[in-house]
């Protein structure tokens, strides 16, 4: 089942191989906007599946969608077989919280946790901020109320005993405004939850000398233990100009989800394809740079589908 990575060409396309119609079964993966990371991720998975279509009898297609909440809803309605969702959104869907208040999607199942969307604490090197303990008296942007970045930042602050009142300024603009505010010296640093590398931090690094601050330690270990949708990860030191070290942090995961009614065979073959060809898969997008086979199991916020469990057991990753 080993796939030659040289045959995987063009992240936006899905291979179409000539197979008798009666031999083929179809699955569809819902992703996000075509300019984001979810869409090429779905495309990469489908291309790997389609290269092995003659053996499995499964043809995979990718669909651009409205993202996490949309994908969970349409999977529940049976309009999609698989979808990519933030792990916290998947958790809220399963539990009937947030956007799914009173309407739990109890049939939702995890397949794999693909890559981390990590909280980045971007600072001007001249700010003197070397750790979270240095934020007192500083001017920071913590994002708008209700955003994923704001929620995660406030949870991290609470874990480290940091209060908004400890800051000289707690700015509440979108993280997309961070690079400009940093360049204009209106803030010392800003927070943002991103799939890395991101143009946001690249823009900041092209304007000022930046650094990324580690978000780690026992408080983070405790958060990961408390909230099943959080996972630890590493922002590679090769991603951003001026940042010459890997940066540990916390965040959500981009999780491939499905429904409990989807045939075990489909989920098993998809999961096995990624595991068997893992190094090829890692090479298909910069966001996969720091993932490991074991990390595919970290941050699964809802029960895992039996088909995925079977593939991970065969790979010796779970007992």
- Whole-number average pLDDT? 90
Main sheet? 10 strands, mixed
Q: For the record, what CATH class of the largest domain applies?
A: Alpha Beta
SS-based class: alpha/beta
Uncertain spans, ≥5 residues at pLDDT below 50?
Answer: 5-22
What is the CATH third-level topology name of the largest domain?
Answer: D-Maltodextrin-Binding Protein, domain 2
Could you name the CATH homologous superfamily of the largest domain?
A: Periplasmic binding protein-like II
Spatial extent as radius of gyration: 20 Å
- How many helices? The count is 11
Outline, from the CA principal axes?
Answer: elongated
> Distance between termini?
23 Å
Number of strands: 10
What is the percentage of strand-forming residues?
15-25%
Give, in order, the helices and strands. EHHEHEHEEHEHEHEHEEHHH
Number of domains: 2
Give the SSE layout.
Elements: E1 25-30, H1 38-51, H2 53-56, E2 58-63, H3 68-76, E3 82-86, H4 87-95, E4 108-124, E5 139-141, H5 148-159, E6 169-171, H6 178-183, E7 189-195, H7 199-207, E8 210-212, H8 218-226, E9 231-235, E10 247-259, H9 264-276, H10 278-282, H11 306-314
Parallel strand pairs: 1-2, 1-3, 5-6, 5-7
Antiparallel strand pairs: 3-10, 4-7, 4-8, 4-10, 9-10
Helix pairs in contact: 9-11
């Amino acid at each position: 089942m080993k796939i030659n990575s040289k045959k995987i060409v063009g992240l936006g396309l899905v291979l179409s191989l000539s197979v008798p119609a009666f031999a083929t079964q179809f699955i569809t993966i819902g992703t996000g906007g075509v300019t984001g990371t979810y869409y090429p991720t779905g495309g990469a998975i489908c291309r790997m599946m389609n290269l092995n279509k003659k053996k499995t009898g499964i043809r995979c297609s990718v669909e651009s969608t409205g993202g996490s909440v949309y994908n969970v809803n349409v999977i529940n309605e049976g309009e999609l077989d698989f979808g990519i969702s933030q792990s916290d959104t998947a958790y809220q869907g399963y539990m009937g919280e947030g956007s799914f208040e009173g309407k739990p999607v109890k049939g939702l199942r995890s397949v794999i946790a693909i890559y981390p969307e990590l909280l980045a604490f971007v600072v001007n090197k001249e700010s003197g901020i070397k750790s979270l303990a240095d934020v007192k008296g500083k001017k920071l942007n913590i994002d708008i109320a209700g955003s994923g970045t704001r929620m995660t930042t406030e949870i991290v602050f609470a874990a480290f005993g940091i209060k908004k009142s400890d800051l000289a300024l707690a700015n509440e603009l979108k993280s997309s405004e961070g690079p400009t505010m940093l360049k204009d010296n209106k803030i010392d640093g800003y927070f943002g939850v991103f799939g890395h590398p991101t143009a946001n931090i690249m823009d900041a690094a092209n304007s000022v000398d930046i650094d990324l601050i580690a978000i780690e330690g026992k408080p983070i270990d405790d958060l990961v233990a408390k909230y099943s949708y959080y996972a630890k990860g590493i922002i590679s030191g090769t991603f951003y100009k001026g940042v010459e070290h890997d940066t540990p942090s916390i965040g959500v995961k981009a999780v491939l989800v499905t429904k409990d009614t989807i045939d075990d065979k489909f989920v098993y073959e998809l999961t096995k394809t990624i595991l068997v060809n893992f190094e090829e898969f890692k090479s298909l997008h910069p966001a996969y740079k720091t993932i490991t086979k074991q990390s595919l199991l970290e941050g699964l916020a809802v029960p895992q589908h039996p088909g995925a469990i079977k593939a991970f057991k065969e790979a010796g990753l779970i007992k």
